[in-house]
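Continuing the series of single-chain predictions for the mutant panel. This is the parent chain; the variants come on the following pages.
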Amino acid sequence: MTGTGSGAAGPSVRVVSWNLLHSVGARINDVIALIRQEKPDLLLMQEATAGLDILAEHVGGYYARTPLPGRIHGPACWSLTPFVRKPRACVIPSGALVRRVAQIVHFDSFIVANVHLSHGQIMNRRQLRRLAAVLPAPAAILGDFNLVGPALVPGFDDVGPREPTHRMADLVPIRIDRCLVRGMVCEQASVLPVFASDHQPIMVRLRTVRGHSEGL
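Parent structure:
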């Protein structure tokens, strides 16, 4: 078991995160197959388009999508159970080309930030620090970080799988799909063998830590 603290409380939650590669990658049938195979409690998606908006009609559950400003795609989430609050957008520092937002999901007893961060290594760390400053424990940050090397986010532990999740320029395997947690432990982490996108999904099984609640 990895993560922060001890004294885990409550049931574990199975979370899957996947960058769909919006134009030529995974389609709704691929997402449906992933849900049916992996049975996540919470699925986080990046580069999701309007074609995913009928997902709940096929598999039940609850769905929300948050397009990036000026883009046809953005983060989306699907949950087996109702969200505590309606998922919302959180503006984060942005580069010159793409305006970035994180999707904030109030799920069960913790908050998740669903992210697709910038490619710049200074900028994506600024974006993570911004989220770390506003997320109360227990919390998790998952998604496509576009980050090479350690995240170095104070108060958060990197608990996602250590295997590569993407091949840069179709050649170099790198680990850019990640999970950071605060006030939680990770009981299981793995990279899933799905190849409809240029990213493989990651799965983490998270549990909150007793005594780590700062309010929502």
